[in-house]
Structures are given as structure tokens and as C-alpha cells.
Amino acid sequence: MRSEKMDDETLVQNCISGNGEAQRELFDRFSPLMLGVAMRYIKDKSRAEDVLQDGFIKVFKNIHRFENKGSLEGWIRRIIVNTALDQIRKNKKSQNNLQLDDSNFEIVQKSDAIGKLEAEVLMKIIQQLPDGYRVVFNMFAIEGYSHKEIAKELKISESTSKSQYSRAKSVLRDTLKKYNIER
After folding, report:
1. Nearest CA among 91, 96, 104 for reference residue 160
2. pTM of the predicted protein model
3. End-to-end distance of the chain based on CA atoms, in angstroms?
4. Is the pLDDT of residue 107 over 50?
5. Do residues 34 and 55 lie in contact, with contact meaning Cβ atoms separated by under 8 Å?
């Protein structure tokens, strides 16, 4: 058992070399966070876990392409998001209902405990959004994609992305009012 974690550069190089211990460390280090990312896009936990597994297969298959430009976490996150979007495309039935505006959504935390509770409630509320709203909201407000990037990735118009984002925010605001979680 190792007492120290490898730095990202060493970890990547060891993964490229096929070092199983490094691969396990990479998965253990990033999988909890990436499961959360997958669950923002995929409602069902078992499907989100499948996305996580598929995403990490892609990570290990393509780890040699990571160039240490930006963070390793960000690179892995992008793969997980794209894997989740691929899964959604495969099962897509109601993508035509996507639009949001350019305002950002923020959670104001009164204390760590209250903030954590609010974040958990917000996650559950986001998971209840219709697929189109949820995907655009996550991509724009949480992942930082532009509406232009979202439109290209989802093969929708930029105005559809903006509209779905706006609708998602409206649904979130109304739902948060019911929970008395508002600024």
C-alpha cells in the first residue's frame, strides 16, 4: 500500500506504461468526482455508473494523448461529459425541448452544512429536469460550455440551447421556491 499519491504527470506516465497500480490510483482518485459529473447528466445511478466505466475505458485508451496542458481532472471530466452525451444521444427521445439564457445560476451557501444540503437538494432537482433542459443546464452553468459549443455538440441551434437553459432556470427557480431555497 502506498502512503503518497503520485503527481499527475507521473501518474499519467505510469498509466501510459501500463502500470496497474497507477491505473488503479487514477481511477480511485477521480472516479468519485466523475460519478457526480455523470449523474448530473444521467438520472439513473446504474446508467451513470456505466457512463463512468465507459468513460474510464476511453481515458485509459487515450491517456497517451493527454499533453499536460490544463488539468488532468479537466481532461477526464471532458471525456466523462462526452461519454454521458453519447449515452443520451443513444437514448434520446425528447431533445427538442432545450433552451436557456446566458445568466449564471449560483448556490449561495449560508454555512458548510446548509450549503451541502442545498447542493444535494439542487442536484436532485436538476436530475428531475427533462433531459434537454438538464443537459443544457449542466453543460452551460456547470461545465462552462458556450451556447455555440452546446449547439454544435448536441446538433441543435444556438437559440434552442439558450431557450432550454432559460426554461431550465425557470423550472429550477420555481422548484427552489417550493423548498424555500432562494437568495
Report:
1. 96
2. 0.68
3. 47
4. no
5. yes
Cα 13 to Cα 145: distance, rounded to the nearest angstrom: 29
Mean pLDDT calculated for residue range 104-128: 59
pLDDT score at 123: 78
Closest CA to 131 of 173, 101, 167: 167
- Which of the two residues, 9 and 181, has the higher pLDDT score? 9
The single-letter code of the amino acid at 107 is I
Q: Round the CA-based radius of gyration of the chain to a whole number and report it.
A: 18
Enclosing H/E stretch for 33: helix 20-41
Query: Which of 33, 67, 99 lies closest to 55 in space, CA to CA?
Result: 33
pLDDT tens, 77-98? 999 999 999 888 887 644 444 4
Amino acid letter for position 173: R
Q: How many CB atoms lie within 10 A of CB 2?
A: 7
Report d(CA 74, CA 145) in Å as an integer. Answer: 13
Q: What is the CB neighbour count within 10 angstroms for residue 106?
A: 8
